[in-house]
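*** Protein under study ***
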Amino acid sequence: MPFAVDDKHVIKVLRLEKRYSSRRFLKEFPNKNWTCSGLDNLIKKIDSSGSIERPPGSGCVRTVRNDKVVEEVAELVQSQEEQPHSHLSLRQISRGTGISRSSIHRVIKTDLELKCFKREHTQVTGADSST
């Protein structure tokens, strides 16, 4: 069970000021559902960095959604001013760039803040046909 933010602050203060161990925390706070291994990990983080926050850059590195790909997808997904109807669909962009369709969709939705619509062919009515 993850620790609440308030609990982390209490653990940090008691560890830095009174050097409480994980067993001491469990003894002092029996009503909390803390585990010994969870406390050990948090204490190790406090001892090494002096903080309870995640270190910057500790998450997954973006591999596909970088600035170059975002610019390339932005060019392909929107019609050019001098060439209307020149935009490409998600599948066409995916095939052309070699990036997965879901990653293209994520770039369009989160980075470009656009909505993706699926193209549909419509039926030609009798009045519109030339025959």
Remarks:
- DSSP finds six helices and no strands in the chain.
